[in-house]
TrEMBL record:
InterPro entries per the UniProt record, alphabetical: WD40/YVTN_repeat-like_dom_sf, WD40_repeat_dom_sf, WD40_rpt
The name this protein goes by in its record: Lethal giant larvae (Lgl)-like C-terminal domain-containing protein
Record keyword Amino-acid biosynthesis present: no
Cellular-component GO terms for this entry: cytoplasm; plasma membrane
Family: Belongs to the WD repeat L(2)GL family.
Example GO biological process: Golgi to plasma membrane transport
Keyword Metal-binding: no
Entries under Gene3D superfamilies matching the protein: YVTN repeat-like/Quinoprotein amine dehydrogenase
The entry's keywords: Exocytosis
SUPFAM superfamilies named among the record's database cross-references: WD40 repeat-like
């Protein structure tokens, strides 16, 4: 007997859903169409000033791009790792993302995909993309600098042989924390010098051609042993690279002087930097209040204002405590002037900052905006001109008003969205609608579209809605109902319905539920106070084919509204349009049935369940028992209990509700009815048809109950009789947040599930098999115990078009079924990269440092040795045919240190090793006094260190020998391209060995005659005398000719 019952039960379950036409795998193709707004958990910012693209990276590996004309794109990596560094290769369509796994992702912005991933062996602590070149400088936790070059052909990164090891750039140190904080090229000398700042505070200036440190400051001598200062941020503080500002973990901010490649006539201007450098003290110590609270300076940014001043943006916060401060100050060349600063009133710490150039559609002008990324993931904006005005007013000792802070949020109403419904309309397109007009849409980063309190202007009426394809209805926190043209993901407002004071039941409570029927033109809204509003729209254009044409009339003239007050917040709304009935459920367990035409409450009944009596779902239906069709109302409570009520009277048809053994929060209650053609849900049935009633009695209508952890199918007829007949049960892998029914092209029925982790599943009915699934990134999903509408709102139309709204931050548009695209202009609004950007001179924020102007090898060497200040030259040498990338390629393509000997000098770097002092020169008269200036004898050890930095600069004689009589075409065949580049920049080639030896022998004879103790250096001999009375320099080339420089005159002997 027991075995027979099991066989009968198994046979019955195998026949469950006979006649139900489910979705097929080929009908399903889930995909993300468009992401609008700010992704959650944002951590890093980057900006391309030429293309005007702002990038925002998140903790889960998502990167959002914002371009001109409201274009936006979402980059999703397979490795969901948070970003550590994010930088553009400007105007090249490439974005570099450094993850916390120390993987460098190379993103193609145009293709929206990863082109290459470079795995770095050490922890990356500094990442700088050199402007107008293909090189990247990477500093690691060990204190070394690695140079990568981008191969544009393959869009991959290649490590160069040239390197800067810790032993050469820092030297031996008792401090174990020697990680690189910043490795940045020096302005005006990008292809010759790089500034390296270590965490222990040491600042060194490295010469690429010299392959050694040429300047050092800071370090352990700047503070006492009991108060170490750890550098954690830095930024250049001038256009010519003579000053750098460093922020420390103790809250100190120091301004340090750095020597520049300069002209000989500006010697006096560098005396102040030399004085401070000799004493190893900063030029200026900024006292802005950070040190008092020991707030670490996490980031610094300097922007030029004029030739004499600039603005310094200072961001400090303590990750452990609650202390944070963001200040902007004027940094003048006159350090004695009083401090002018502005403290921005931020409610939370700032994680990142950028200054961007925005385009205002209304004023048709450029504006610079300060973008701040806060710890909560939101973005706030400040008009930089207002900051400048405030600081200038402070200089005049007036009382200015604080700059206005604007929070970036969805420009869809004055208050947040609390409920939403998406509906699909006509599918025909008109050619005029294919033209995308950017000025019709609001810009997220515009500071001109806000009201005084920082919110966006309310929506206005839009004509021409008869061409709309999709309609979005949003309910807001202030009780407003807005209508949007959703034909394009950049929504256009139609009109807004606000609460009127004359209404009998005026309420400004947040809307919690919306229900709209386009065929009958009835909209029902419910709010948190229990107010139901029923809108009856008039059909103004009876001949129009568009079901949304009734919305074209003037707002207020095309509808009437009726209100009903119920007990508790509205949680569920269902309609029976055949009999003009409306069912409403509240969070207190009340079920009310309202007659639509007269707006009268037929009955109100409170139902109870074991755990939670709140109503989760309501459905009108019918049940066939003994050949009699009975009208019922199915009630689903929040604890997954099911109660059938008699529709007309509201009486319970069973003694106690049916509920699962382990109750969980219910998400969806739906009836899967059947016909001879397949599945029918309760939205499509016509119970008045007699033939349908006979077929229904022969088949099994099912109740679909979806909760957070499982999906269940019950027999409808048995449920009405009080029999718990569980036909199918599927446990879910994860916590489900939302469930909805969709219909395929052939009326196949499917189930869409969205999980708290961001996964979307599409299942067929009634077998509940998984057809497809995708991971949705870029939104925050509701936690298991979060209140309703706490995070993401969901709306999925019956045609499979999905909309996910993350509070007032972002919207995600998706399509579930494999059908024609339903949104217009997708290709236009997702193309953030432009092949023909605006002229460079329009971008005020993209000031590119100019190359230093060459004035011959002799003058270049004199400038290097004297360290004078560079003139502000804005012209490049027209004779220089090679770009900075080619010049650096010649340097970086050669290994400067052998692989086996990476520590050539492990001693600490000091100023004594870098510069010659007058005490290091022994002046002695020679036995035979020559005519003209005397020749001094120099210390070999000190002179060797001085002249070693001139490697590769003095090779004129070798170049002359290489240019000996030889056919030009034959020379091009014999010499490789790499050797030609090396010859251009005076680097030794393979054929120069004999020439160097011949020159060296000749030079030894000349020195012996002159009785000058010097050091041989690649075929050149150099002597330098500096005393209080005269300055003489001797450049002795490979031919034995000595060039004597006295002051500005040159004598060849």
């Amino acid at each position: 007997m027991f075995v027979r019952k099991l066989v009968e039960k198994a046979t019955r379950k195998n026949n469950v859903g006979d006649g139900i036409n489910g979705l097929k795998a080929e009908d399903v193709k889930p995909r993300t169409n468009f992401h609008y707004g700010i992704p959650p958990d944002s951590t890093t910012l980057a900006y391309d000033p030429i293309q005007r693209i702002l990038a925002v990276s998140t903790r889960n590996g998502v990167i959002k791009l914002f371009g001109k004309d409201n274009t936006q794109a979402l980059l999703q990596s397979e490795a969901a790792a948070p970003s550590k560094f994010l930088q553009f290769m400007e105007n090249q369509g490439l974005l570099f993302n450094v993850t916390f796994q120390n993987h460098i992702e190379v993103w193609s912005i145009d293709k929206k995909q990863v082109c290459h991933i470079h795995k770095f062996n050490e922890e990356i602590t500094s990442f700088v993309v050199v402007k107008q070149s293909s090189f990247i400088y990477i500093g690691d936790c060990l204190g070394s600098i690695t140079i990568l070059m981008l191969d544009h052909a393959s869009q991959s990164l290649v490590q160069m042989p040239y390197k800067i090891p810790l032993s050469e750039s820092h030297g031996a140190s008792t401090n174990s924390d020697t990680a690189v904080v910043l490795a940045s090229p020096q302005p005006m000398a990008e292809n010759r010098r790089i500034l390296i700042i270590f965490r222990d505070g040491l600042i060194t200036l490295w010469g690429f051609q010299e392959s050694k440190v040429i300047y050092v400051v800071g370090g352990s001598s700047q503070y006492s042993s009991h108060e170490p200062k750890i550098a954690i941020s830095a930024s250049w503080a001038c256009d010519i690279g003579s000053k750098v500002v460093v922020g420390y973990s103790s809250g100190d901010i120091f301004l340090w002087g750095v020597p520049v490649i300069s002209d000989c006539n500006s010697e006096a201007s560098n005396n102040q930097n030399d004085l401070h450098a000799s004493q190893n003290v900063p030029l200026l110590k900024l006292n802005l209040g950070y040190k008092m609270d020991k707030v670490p300076i996490v980031s610094l940014r300097w922007c030029a204002h004029d030739e004499m001043s600039g603005r310094l943006y200072i961001n400090g916060f303590n990750a452990v405590g609650s202390s944070h401060s963001f200040q902007v100050m004027i940094l003048n060349s006159n350090f004695q002037s009083r401090t002018i600063k502005l403290m921005l009133p931020l409610s939370e710490p700032c994680l990142a900052m950028e200054t961007i150039s925005c385009f205002s559609n209304h004023r048709k002008s450029n504006q610079t905006t300060l973008v701040l990324l806060l710890r909560s993931g939101s973005l706030c904006l400040y008009d930089d001109s207002e900051i400048e005005h405030y600081l200038s007013q402070c200089q005049s000792k007036s009382t200015p008003s604080l700059p206005k802070q604007i929070t970036v949020k969805l420009p869809y109403g004055d208050s947040g969205i609390s409920a939403a419904k998406l509906y699909k309309g006509a599918s025909n397109l008109i050619y005029e609608d294919q033209v995308f007009l950017a000025n019709k849409h609001y810009s997220l980063f515009s500071t001109n579209m806000k009201e005084k309190d920082g919110s966006f202007q309310s929506s206005a009426h839009l004509s021409g809605f008869e061409k709309a394809k999709n309609l979005l209805i949003t309910g807001h926190v202030d009780g407003t109902v807005n209508f949007w043209d959703a034909s394009c993901p950049l929504l256009l407002p139609i009109f807004s319905i606000k609460q009127q004071p004359s209404e009998n039941y005026a309420s400004t409570a947040p809307l919690t539920s919306l229900h709209f029927d386009a065929s009958s033109r009835v909209l029902v809204s419910g709010d948190q106070s229990g107010l139901i509003r029923i809108f009856f729209f008039k059909k103004e254009h009876p001949t129009s084919e568009n079901i949304f044409s009734f919305l074209q009339a003037k707002p207020g003239d095309n509808y009437t509204v009726q209100c009903v007050k119920l007990k508790g917040a509205i949680t569920s709304i269902s309609t029976d349009l055949e009999f003009k009935h409306l069912a409403v459920g509240t969070d207190k367990g009340y079920v009310s049935v309202i007659q639509l035409e007269e707006t009268t409450v037929l009955y109100q009944k409170q139902v109870s369940s074991q755990l939670n009596s709140g109503i989760a779902s309501l459905h009108f239906g019918s049940s066939a028992q003994n050949g009699i069709v009975k009208k019922i109302l199915l009630v689903g409570t929040e604890d997954s209990s099911i109660l059938p009520l008699e529709k007309d009277s509201g009486n319970l048809l069973i003694a106690k509700p049916l509920q699962p053994k382990k109750p969980s929060k219910a998400l969806l209650l739906h009836v899967l009815d059947v016909s001879s053609d397949g599945a029918r849900t309760t939205d499509y049935q016509d119970a008045s048809n007699e033939s349908y009633s006979k077929v229904s009695m022969q088949r099994q209508p099912l109740i679909l109950l979806c909760s957070r952890d499982a999906i269940r199918l019950y027999d409808l007829n048995h449920t009405v009789e009080g029999i718990k007949d569980l036909c199918v049960k599927k446990r879910l892998d994860g916590i489900c947040s939302y469930a909805s029914i969709i219909h395929g092209p052939s009326m196949g029925v499917g189930l869409v599930l969205i999980f708290a982790c961001g996964k979307m599943e599409i299942r067929s009915l009634p077998d509940l098999a998984i057809l497809n699934e995708i991971n949705l990134k870029g939104l925050i999903y509701a936690a298991p115990n979060s209140p309703p509408n706490a995070y993401t709102l969901f709306s999925i139309s019956s045609e499979g078009e999905a909309l996910l709204i993350d509070r007032d931050q972002a919207m995600l548009f998706l399509s579930v079924l494999s059908q024609k695209e339903v949104y217009r202009h997708l290709e236009c609004i997702t193309k953030v990269y432009s092949d023909d950007p605006a002229p460079r001179e329009e971008f005020s924020s993209s000031k590119n440092p100019q190359k230093e102007k060459r004035k011959g090898i002799l003058n270049m060497i004199i400038r290097d040795m004297k360290g004078n200040k560079t003139k502000h030259s804005h012209e490049s040498d027209p004779a220089d045919g090679f770009t900075a990338t080619e010049e650096l390629s010649a340097i970086f393509s050669t290994a400067n240190f052998p692989e086996s000997d990476g520590t050539r000098n492990a001693s600490a770097v000091t100023k004594e090793d870098i510069e010659l002092d007058i005490d290091d020169i022994d002046l002695e008269e020679t036995e035979e006094k020559q005519k003209g200036p005397n020749i001094a004898v120099l210390s070999k050890q000190k002179l060797s260190k001085k002249f070693f930095s001139l490697k590769g600069k003095l090779k004129s004689s070798i170049e002359e020998k290489l240019n000996s009589p030889k056919d030009k075409s034959e020379e091009e065949k014999d010499i490789s391209a790499v050797d030609r580049v090396k010859q251009k920049y005076r680097y030794t080639t393979n054929d120069e060995a004999s020439t160097a030896k011949e020159a060296e022998g000749k030079l030894r004879e000349n020195v012996a005659k002159l009785k000058v103790s010097c050091i041989s250096f690649s075929g050149y001999w150099i002597a330098n005398i500096n005393d209080a009375k005269r300055s003489r320099e001797f450049f002795i080339n490979g031919k034995g000719t000595a060039t004597i420089v006295t002051g500005e005159k040159e004598h060849v002997k």
